[in-house]
Amino acid sequence: MVEAIVLVGGRGTRLRPLTVTTPKPMLPVAGVPFVVHQLARLRDAGVGHVVLATSYRAEVFEGFLGDGSRLGLELDYVTEEVPLGTGGAMRNVTHLLRGGPDAPVVVMNGDVLSGHDVGAQLGLHAAAGADVTLYLTRVDDARAFGCVPTDAAGRVTAFLEKMPEPVSDQINAGCYVFRRAVLDAIPAGRVVSVERETFPGLLADGAVVLGHVDPAYWLDLGTPAALVVGSRDLVLGRVRSSAVPGPPGERLVLPGAQVAHDATVGGGSTVGDGAVVEAGAVVEGSVLQQDVVVRRGALVRDCVVGQGAEVGEGCVLSGVAVGDGARIGAGCELPPGARVWVDAVLGPHAVRMSSDQS
Ligand code: GTP
User: Fold this and answer.
1) 122 neighbors 106 (Cβ within 8 angstroms)
2) Each residue of 259-286: pLDDT tens digit?
3) Contact 322, 224 (CB under 8 A)
4) Domain residues of the chain, as ranges?
5) Which conformational region is residue 129 in: left (phi greater than 0), alpha (psi within -120 to 50 degrees), or beta?
6) Separation between Cα atoms, residue 136 and residue 151, nearest integer Å
7) Is there a common fold for 2-220 and 250-357?
8) Are 135 and 116 spatial neighbours (Cβ–Cβ below 8 Å)?
C-alpha cells in the first residue's frame, strides 16, 4: 500500500479573513473542503494510508474527516504545537509510516490543485530508484517562485530562490515522492524547510533528485482570487476531481440550498448547503459557503462569501472575500480585492465604489 503525508499546518495568512475560522485546506472548494479533493486524488492514485501533518486549527481536520473510511482511506493525524516548517512537519510524522526504508512516500502541500498524474510520478520514482522525485510545472513568469532546473536526464541541478531573471520556467509544484529513509534523515524536533534546506542538502550529497515535469492543470490556492478560480475550474470541469459532488456544469448547488427561480447562478459558482439566493440576484464565478444569504437584486461576481454571511439587497461585490458571519448592508458596492472581516457589519450604502473604480 502506498502511503502519503499531506501538509496542512500553515496559517494561510494570505487567505484572511477566510482562514480566521477555518484552516486553508478545510475551506470549501467546489462543494467540499479542499483537502478532500487532494485525498480523493491520492486514493485514485493507489494511496491507502495518509498522515495529515496539522498545526493551525488542528481539531477541524479530524472533526470532519474522522478515520478516513468514508473516503476509502486510513487517516492519521499529528499536530505540531509549534509549526515545524515543511521539512520539520514531514519528519515529525515518520513514526506513523508503515513502509520500509525504500518505500515511496507521497508528500503533498495542502494547497495545490492539480490534474497531474501522481501514478506516473510514482512510476518514474520507482523506475529510477530515486531518493526524491519532485512534481514540476512550467509557468510563464517564474519570478515569484523558486526555480528548479533539470538536466537532459531529468535530474534536478539546482534549487534557486525567487530571482529577478529566472534561469528556468520550471517551478516546484508542491507534490513529492520521497524514499522513506530520506524523510527519516531530516533532523527531528526543529524547524526545517525542505525547499531551502533539505533539497539543496540532498543535491550537495549527490542524491538522486528527479524532476517530473507534468503540463497538467496547476494552481496554488493561496489567495482569495486563486480559491475562486480553483473552485470555478473544478465546477466547470476544467480540472477533474472525483470528489466534486455533481457532474461538471455552470453551477454546483448543494442540497439544502435555495435559489430563486429568477436568480442567475453561473460561471462555475457553488452555492453551499443552507445558502439562499433571492429573486433577481446574480451570482457569477463565486463560492457561497454554507448558510450564506444573497438578498434580492444583489450582484456577486468572483467572490468568496464565508459561512453565514449576508449580502444585502442590491449590493455589488466583485472580487471580494467576505468573512464568516459578516453583514453587508443594502446597496453597498465593494471593489476587487476588498476583504470584509469576520462578523463585520456594514450599514446600508456604507461603502460605494467611486466612479473611477467601477
Ligand atoms: P500563507 O501564510 O498564506 O503563506 O499560507 P501557508 O501558511 O499555508 O504557507 P505556505 O503556502 O507556504 O505552505 C505550503 C503548504 O505547507 C501548505 O499546505 C501549508 O499548510 C503547509 N505548511 C506550511 N508550514 C507548515 C508547518 O510549519 N507545518 C505544517 N504541518 N504544515 C505547514
Assistant:
1) yes
2) 999 999 999 999 999 999 999 999 999 9
3) no
4) 2-220, 250-357
5) left
6) 13
7) no
8) yes
Residues 6+ apart with CB under 8 A from 356: none
**Superfamily, domain 250-357:** Hexapeptide repeat proteins (2.160.10.10)
What are the Cα distances from residue 55, in Å, to 110, 112, 185? 12, 18, 22
Q: Which amino acid is at 158?
A: A
What phi and psi values does residue 127 have, to the nearest 5 degrees? Answer: -60, -35
Secondary structure, 3-state, 309-325: CEECCCCEEECCEECCC
Residue 10 alpha carbon to ligand 1 centre in Å: 3
Provide the pLDDT confidence category of residue 186 given band limits of 50, 70 and 90. Answer: very high
Instruction: Please tell me if the CB atom of residue 85 comes closer than 6 angstroms to any atom of ligand 1.
Output: yes
Closest-CA residue, ligand 1 atom 29, reads: 9
Q: Which atom of ligand 1 lies at the shortest distance from residue 222's CA?
A: 3
Predicted TM-score of the model (pTM):
0.94
Which residue owns the Cα nearest ligand 1 atom 27? 85
- Are 107 and 7 a contacting pair, CB within 8 Å? yes
**What residue spans of 215-337 are helical by DSSP H?**
224-236
Fold (topology level) of 2-220: Spore Coat Polysaccharide Biosynthesis Protein SpsA; Chain A (3.90.550)
Cell numbers standing for residue 134 = 519532485
Whole-angstrom distance, CA of residue 265 vs CA of residue 286: 9
CA-closest candidate to residue 321, choices 306, 299, 333, 343: 306
Residue 280: phi and psi, rounded to 5, are: 75, -5
Which residue is closest in CA terms to ligand 1's atom 19?
A: 10
Residue 352 has pLDDT above 90, yes or no: no
User: Is residue 32 in contact with ligand 1, taking CB distance under 6 Å?
Assistant: no
DSSP single-letter state for residue 25: G
Measured CA to CA, the distance from residue 326 to residue 302 in angstroms comes to 17
